[in-house]
Amino acid sequence: MSRRQILAKIAEELASRPLIGNKDKYGPDLEPILRCFPRDNPNIGFDWCAAFVYHCCTEAGVKLPVRYPEPVSRNFAWVEAWLEWGQIYSFYHHKSDQSFLPDQGDLIIFDNIVGNGLNDHIGVVVKIEQGKIITAEGNYYNKSGIFQRTIEQINGYIRIDDTY
Questions:
Q1: pLDDT given at position 144
Q2: Exposure letters 106-115 (e unless 16+ CB within 10 A, then b)
Q3: CB of 29 within 8 A of CB of 21?
Q4: pLDDT at position 96, please?
Q5: N or C: which end of the chain has fewer CB within 10 A?
Q6: What is the pLDDT of residue 143?
Q7: Nearest CA-CA partner of 12 in 149, 136, 159, 148
Q8: Domains of the chain
Q9: pLDDT along the chain (164 residues), means of 10
């Protein structure tokens, strides 16, 4: 099984539970996901979709620091950090890239899916089924889940090299 297949399996299992945050975007479901990211108050969380992806990646054996050095501007709890990192290493593929075919275990970045503009959400591709993209996501309105997404919602994909 490839690392991307392992990543997809881990993300699907976690998202299917589902994980649910309290009113402060925290709670026992989220502690394993949020624990490595700095917070002023350890009992208050944050928008956790990118932290969910980070957790799934590290569980799958991807070796990533909590915060990648410059020029990445933030830690991996932010969608922008994933996008910047993916662009630096040529792992990022915009949805208009006709030569790229998304597959199981790719990360998927969305635009305005939760009403916050460009690059406002991230998940993991679980499978492509009859042209539909099935994803595992954390923090879709403070809950994880498995979703079917359309091309209009997608910004692009990050395919992490298996050697990373």
A1: 98
A2: bbbbbbebee
A3: yes
A4: 95
A5: N
A6: 97
A7: 136
A8: 3-158 (3.90.1720)
A9: 96 98 97 95 96 98 92 95 96 96 97 92 95 95 96 94 80
DSSP string, the chain: --HHHHHHHHHHHHHHS--B--TTS-STTTHHHHTTS--SSTT-----HHHHHHHHHHHTT----SSPPTT--S-TTSHHHHHHHHHHTT-EEETT-TT----TT-EEEESSSSSS-TT-EEEEEEEEETTEEEEEES-SSSB-EEEEE-GGGEEEEE---TT-
- Token pair recorded at residue 55: 């957790």
Residue with tokens 């309105």: 141
As given in the structure block, the two tokens for residue 33 are: 């996901």
Here the tokens at position 123 are 């998940």
**Structure tokens of 35?**
């624990």
